[in-house]
Prior knowledge:
Shape: globular
Catalytic activity: Endonucleolytic cleavage to 5'-phosphomonoester
Subcellular location: Cytoplasm
Low-confidence stretches: 1-7, 208-213
Largest sheet: 5 strands, mixed
Pfam families: RNase_HII
Keywords: Cytoplasm, Endonuclease, Hydrolase, Manganese, Metal-binding, Nuclease
Oligomer: single chain
Mean pLDDT: 92
CATH class of the largest domain: Alpha Beta
Enzyme class: hydrolase
Number of domains: 2
Amino acid sequence: MTKKVLSDAPRLQLRYQQDLLEAGCDEAGRGCYAGPVFAAAVMLPEGFYHPLLNDSKQIKAEIRTELRYYIEANALAYAVAQVSVEEIDTINILKASQKAMHLALDALIPEAAFIAVDGNYFIPYRQTPHTCIIKGDGKYAHIAAASILAKTYRDAYMQRIHEEFPHYNWVSNKGYGTLTHRKAIEENGICIHHRKSFNILPGQLPSLEDEWH
């Protein structure tokens, strides 16, 4: 059941255009040191609304979880895909992020006739028209929903592999290059879940004394 709450989240537009069946796409984990990159594609029905829906980065974890279940229960269609660390290291993170979005679009039923993508770059998908929208996850509901699904699915994955390598504290940092994560890499080296192409081996990382933004 959706909580009745007041929110500072913006009222998002449902879609970019009105004539074609449209999917919103976003990815999660592109800048992480460890773990796969995830992407989601979401189609929303007329009238879809949640007062807290926004860019996943602007929402607390417990609200993202609530939104995930609301989106899954109420979306017209959704799909989530991932591309492995091994493939990221082989084809690079930009191509892997694009592939993850394409895989999510492959899994959508019905098929999207138009795609709205967060960001400023997208490799065309089949012959489907698309538009790139900078900060689209804070403007369009279906892109925000895709950002929520990609983020929550990826976070759940990182929590699972945290049990295998708890000293990296992935349950907290989710694979991002936090000071704690960087210090753990300096002390323990990297493991099978780290992205070898990211120059994160001990000695390659910035000084731990540097300010992390």
